[in-house]
Fold this sequence. Notes:
single chain; mainly alpha; 67% helix; 0% strand; elongated
Amino acid sequence: xxxxxxxxxxxxxxxxxxxxxxxxxxxxxxxxxxxxxxxxxxxxxxxxxxxxxxxxxxxxxxxxxxxxxxxxxxxxxxxxxxxxxxxxxxxxxxxxxxxxxxxxxxxxxxxxxxxxxxxxxxxxxxxxxxxxxxxxxxxxxxxxxxxxxxxxxxxxx
Length: 157
């Protein structure tokens, strides 16, 4: 896994350059540069328009006193998609456009949720068990408590 993170900073720009060269061979350099400039402008528009809509959805969720997790995730996806559109390259543009499609976002959040809910451990590694309890006062005459420490009828007390 560590090797992937070492190769990724070199492999991604190299792949972007190779795809740009292939696209330029197919449609020409001028059209390629125009497409890259158009995607950068589209990225700015996405951040401004959809970012503002995500911020409004976040405010509405907070006003209704609902958990804002969905609105925050959509806003993060819009911001990342806008930044990927601004970065020159066709592979990053494809990834950005995928992040803007709601079913893809829902699949992504579902995968993240399943991964997160699979590990319900406390910070120290202990398993967390949620339960209900009922407090029993020592002066209560409960036959189930007879003979146990703390029993008011216990002569040792």
